[in-house]
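Shipment paperwork, digital attachment
Item: protein structure file
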Amino acid sequence: MKRKKIPWNGGAKRRKLFSKLRDFRQDVLTIPNLLTAVRIVAVPLILWLLYHDDTAMRLWAMAVYVLASVTDFFDGWVARRYNTISTTGKLLDPLADKFIVLLTLVVLVYDHEVQLLPVILTLAREFYIFGIRALAVEHGLIISAGRGGKWKTTFQMFAIPLLILGGRVLPEWDLALWGNTLLWISVLFALQSAAVYTLTLKRRLFESTHHEP
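Attachment content:
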């Protein structure tokens, strides 16, 4: 009995593989995502530097934090300028921001470099916004960040380097006081933006419910 030959569709498989690789490169291996990855990698380095608690390590931790914060500006600018906004970037960028801010603040609270209440409010706000965004996604809604959220991030970018240095560098300037003051201002913007986000979601949900046929 003659065996029937089964054609091997090697060309189609290769095209499918190349297509997946191309999609991976376009969605993951982009300059904005690589900059975001740098920010994520910087988190354990900053925490390690803070753990070795001396003036030189604090200066290095501040420098790494500032450089990581600069990447936050450039990854968004490059993504918009060259139209390389990706799904991976939308996921990783806010996570990287939260990792570097929240974990650094928690360590500084442990070292008594920052007041506890603004850190608790910042953590609570981020968990609340995470839940609100999950609710929005569940209803197919996308709500962009408002100006309050952007001002919150800006004040955090200035506050945390000052808190990292604390009273170890230029003690006559009381950098810890300035850092805590800026952190409180960021908390006010954080709470304001959370309220705006909540009201916007409530309005969008009301509109979508009453426009259903």
